[in-house]
Amino acid sequence: MILRKYYVTCLSFGFLAAVSICLPVQLPAAPPAQPINYVGSQACQQCHEKEYRAFTSHAKKSSSYQSIVRLRKELTEEEIRGCYVCHTTGYGKPGGFVSEQSTPHLKNAGCEVCHGPGAVHVTSQASADINGHPTEQDCEACHISERVRAFRYKPLIRGGAH
Ligand code: HEC
Ligand code: HEC
Ligand code: HEC
Ligand code: HEC
User: Fold this and answer.
1) What is the pLDDT of residue 50?
2) Cβ neighbours of residue 72 under 8 Å, at least 6 residues apart?
3) What pLDDT shows up at residue 47?
4) Least CB-packed of 19, 85, 114, 149 within 10 Å?
5) Residues near 129 by Cβ (< 8 Å), separated by ≥ 6?
6) Looking at ligand 1, which residue's alpha carbon is closest to its atom 27?
């Protein structure tokens, strides 16, 4: 409601008690009540069983943390953190992957790497609260040119999904 964005401030001049000037002042935009967090693929299962099952049985993303584990011994801590951006969900973003210990539900690249953070949608169940139509741009954060080996955008917009 528009009224909430304003409050009225009055400046009274003590020596001229009869004169006061009132001005509407815009309040700074309220921060979102909570950041839209990541919940992990399993939280989607109860309502999207078909997509969940197809994803976890066919998409390599659903076990992409394992690709880091396989090579971990040869990598420095810093190099390993470099893998997280693409091989986990939401690394470096609010409510995203932090570590295997503290955020095990986000350790693989899950539904939310394409559909965006789902915390609001799992409660509201509204389409408006989820990215229902990922585009190539949503893939490009991770499928950069050196890594496009098994990837053809156009025919495979649903590739790596379900
Ligand atoms: C409690 C049930 C529930 C959970 C949990 C849930 N969804 Fe949904 N989802 C729905 C419903 C209901 C719709 C259909 C909404 C409509 O048609 O208006 C929907 C629609 C969608 C759509 C299609 C949106 C569109 O624009 O057509 C996508 C994509 C989606 N969900 C992804 C997810 C993902 C990813 C998760 C997990 C992070 C998830 N959902 C968790 C109930 C749920
Ligand atoms: C957060 C990063 C990320 C995003 C965003 C992303 N991918 Fe991926 N994708 C990966 C990773 C990582 C793998 C490889 C997993 C492995 O083998 O460990 C992969 C694998 C794939 C594969 C290989 C085949 C398979 O079975 O999984 C296809 C195809 C693919 N992705 C398509 C897409 C498409 C299409 C989009 C956009 C709609 C997309 N990806 C968005 C990270 C991402
Ligand atoms: C910029 C995003 C990105 C980063 C960073 C990244 N990967 Fe990947 N990785 C991908 C994508 C995308 C694929 C799938 C490539 C394909 O099949 O086209 C993949 C595939 C793989 C595979 C499977 C290769 C195969 O032949 O099946 C392994 C293993 C892997 N990555 C390990 C790592 C490790 C370890 C790191 C960190 C040192 C890392 N990746 C960093 C995006 C990334
Ligand atoms: C690699 C990207 C990617 C991943 C990962 C992914 N999806 Fe999707 N999803 C898509 C695309 C692309 C569409 C089709 C959108 C359109 O029609 O424009 C889609 C559509 C959907 C829809 C709408 C119904 C349909 O089939 O068109 C639902 C629901 C959905 N996804 C849920 C999920 C759930 C749950 C997961 C995880 C288990 C998941 N998605 C993982 C890319 C992805």
Assistant:
1) 97
2) 80
3) 98
4) 149
5) 120, 121
6) 132
Distance of CA 132 from the midpoint of ligand 2 (Å): 17
* Lookup result for tokens 């409601």: 1
Give the ligand at the shortest distance from the Cα of 87. 2
Distance, CA of 119 to CA of 116 (rounded, Å): 10
Cα separation, 102 vs 104, in Å, equals: 6
Quick one: tokens of 73? 């011994």
pLDDT digits (tens, 9 = 90+) for 39-66: 999 999 999 999 999 999 999 999 999 9
Residue count of the chain: 162
User: Would you give the end-to-end CA distance of the chain in angstroms?
Assistant: 41
In the structure encoding, which two tokens stand for residue 74, read together?
């040869």
132 contacts 115 by C-beta, under 8 angstroms = yes
Q: Which residue has a Cα nearest atom 25 of ligand 3?
A: 67
> Distance (Å, rounded) from C-alpha 95 to C-alpha 26?
30
Residues in CB range of 114: below 8 A, 6 or more apart: 131, 134, 138, 139, 161
Q: Is 7 or 144 the better-scoring residue by pLDDT?
A: 144
